[in-house]
Amino acid sequence: MILTRLSRQKQPPLAITATLLTRHLSTSASSSKLRDHYSFQPPPSLSPNPQNTTPNPNLNKKQKPKYRPASSLDRIKPTHSDLAFDFRFSYTESSPTVRPIGLREPKYSPFGPGRLDREWTGVCAPAVDPKVKSVDGSEDPKLEEKRRLLRERIQGTPLIEAERKILVGKCQRNKTKRQINLGRDGLTHNMLNDIHNHWTYAEAVRIKCLGVPTVDMKNVCTQLEDKTFGKIIQRHGGTLILYRGRNYNRKKRPVIPLMLWKPHEPVYPRLIKTTIDGLSIEETKEMRKRGLAVPVLTKLAKNGYYGSLVPMVRDAFLVSELVRIDCTGLERSDYKKIGCKLRDLVPCILVTFDKEQVVVWRGRDYKPPDDGHFFSNREFFDEPSGDVERCDSSDESNDQ
């Protein structure tokens, strides 16, 4: 009954209800005294007068462009370097006198496209003629004289004994951890930049040499002094102390463009021939069998110091015509480079690289060379005149 009566009553329209509710809220908001007691500033979206908001004064200010990382597609001005030598990936493991017979890949610059104002020949970036098209790239004889004069100007007056000892003492292991490691690739182009970075904070830097390049430490020392214009003030085994010079200005350091990747190795003639010169096929096969059966002269450790290998092979040739060197555990490219260095330094004839062994033959008419190649494990710089006194010592490579 009651529900029926309520349903019969007239309900107010929905529009009238909304209007009354809006008037009630507006009246209550305007009559509220909370704004007088609290300093509340409503945001623009809730402000009763949104049209009176103050304009942003920074709208007319020039907007800063968004950051965009550098891209290889951008045009970069080619880098110019006044260094008076051809840029190579490695200065100790590649020789300008050895001409390759071809290239494995098309010629492309390891410095990046258009980043260097020198033409990459596949082997080097010549300093003389950037338009050279030959594979080897000939060097101007005047460049060596230019490097010598520049090195003399940077070195200045030679160090006295007290100054040398102070610099050597600062580079010892108990004084500093700064060190550059020279590994299987030898003195690389990017390592030149590392040496100059170390010279920014210290007058001398310690260089640790291990692996294949240590077979010819004389070449390593020569290339370091020639390409960095520095001076080696101490050498013990494979550890060198390289001094930057009295007149070295770190603010005027040479421009050394970095190689972004390692270039492909060119194709060189085969080291092991089918038949050894002067022998028949049967005699060559018999010599290879005997070479793999002779006692091992020495076993080379991986990434070790091989500075005494050449004198050992020369001494062994006095009593035996075949010498075998155990290279178990070494990379095949590493003991191929070792065999190539022995062929040029001993000299000798390569017989085989089978079973991770390097077998060399002294030849029919062997005579010990008198070229004075013996390079001692330690050099003494204690003479007041600055002359280098070299003496032969026992193999001290194990303590390195």
TrEMBL record:
Domain of life: Eukaryota
Domain CRM: 157-255, 277-373
Protein name according to UniProt: RNA-binding CRS1 / YhbY (CRM) domain-containing protein isoform 1
Coiled coil region boundaries: none
Key words, A-Z: mRNA processing, mRNA splicing, Repeat, Ribonucleoprotein, RNA-binding, Transit peptide
Acetylation in keyword set: no
PROSITE patterns cross-referenced by the UniProt entry: CRM
One Gene Ontology term, aspect cellular component: ribonucleoprotein complex
Region (Disordered): 27-75, 377-400
Residue ranges with Low complexity bias: 48-60
GO aspect biological process, one term: Group II intron splicing
Sample GO molecular function, one term: RNA binding
Nucleotide-binding as UniProt keyword: no
A Pfam family hit: CRS1_YhbY
